[in-house]
Amino acid sequence: MSIIVKDLVRLNAQAADKHEAIKMAGELLVKAGRVKSAYVEGMLAREKTMSTYMGNGVAIPHGEFENRADIIKTGISVVQFPAGVAWEDDELAYLVIGIAATENEHVGVLANLAEVIEEPEDAELLARTTDAMFIVERLSRPVESE
Amino acid sequence: MASSVAASEVKKIIIACEAGMGSSLMAANKLKRMLKKAGINGVDVKHSAVRAIPKDAQIVLSHEGLVQMARDKAPWAVCFSFKNFSNIPAFETITEALKTGADVVSEE
After folding, report:
1. How big is the A-B interface in CB pairs under 8 Å?
2. CB of A118 less than 8 A from some CB of B
3. Does B22 lie at the interface with A, CB-CB under 8 angstroms?
4. Which range has highest mean pLDDT (A78-87, A97-106, B79-88)?
5. A109-141 pLDDT per residue, tens
6. pLDDT of residue A49
7. Which CATH number describes the domain made up of A6-139?
8. Own/partner pairs, B90-93, CB within 8 angstroms, 24+ separation
């Protein structure tokens, strides 16, 4: 099973605040059978201790160490907010990436995501696309092995 | 706690976060690319949960809320802390030191 698939992507979403946005990213993981619903609570708790905003409109909410028990299968969800969600200070998140990982199978997806964060044009394309597969493919590119 | 390490001895750098599944991995990706751009080879950059820092790391970076635990878990390593995973000033310090062959020094 791929780590990121079309069913884990939600386009054109709107949320009042980051709490709601994290819930959306978490619910995608729950619906796809990747995590138990308790994991979403872990994501919300983790965000309270430390922001997962990574820069350039991207946030990566995920659970805490203890929440690994609630992960059924490694998965990554993407919720796109074309209008942005206020995340911290003056920063808006346009892409909210929910992460649930048991081992390190998701290293490749996050390497792609790190590239996207460093290329404002890439991030913009993902924040505006109307094609979920565009996001899936961009984040599933093969990356250099170490 | 170590406060400096010679550039030639740096083989492994660890970025540690609470769960070791998201923030630290993203930050590790960034440092990897910074080192690559600077032409620095032979240094392994990995992410980890704070409670599981590998024994063979010479440098450990962690969020300020976790760095004390990192120091306790890896007293042999040079530790750096940061406030924000998306902006880690020590990356510049480390890259510059490795590039010039100087000691990597943490003044924390």
Report:
1. 62
2. yes
3. yes
4. A78-87
5. 988 998 898 888 999 999 999 999 999 999 998
6. 85
7. 3.40.930.10
8. B90/B61, B91/B30, B91/B31, B91/B34
pLDDT of residue A61: 95
Of A51, A67, A107, Cβ closest to residue B25: A107
Q: pLDDT tens across B32-67, in order?
A: 999 999 999 999 999 999 999 999 999 999 999 899
Q: How many CB atoms lie within 10 A of CB B30?
A: 21
b vs e for A24-38, b when ≥16 Cβ sit within 10 Å of the residue's Cβ? Answer: bbbbbbbebebbbee
Mean pLDDT over residues A87-102, rounded? Answer: 91
Q: What is the fold of B4-100?
A: Rossmann fold (3.40.50)
Element (H, E) at A78: strand A75-88
Task: Provide the residue ranges of all domains of chain A, joining segments of one domain with +.
Answer: 6-139
Q: Kindly list the catalytic residues of A.
A: 62
Q: Which residues of A touch B21 (CB under 8 A)?
A: 62-63, 68, 99-101, 106
User: How close does chain A come to B25, measured CA to CA in Å?
Assistant: 7
A5 reaches B (C-beta below 8 A): no
- The neighbour count for residue B41, using CB atoms within 10 Å, is 7
Q: Do B21 and A106 touch (CB under 8 A)?
A: yes
Is the confidence metric ipTM above 0.90 for this complex? no
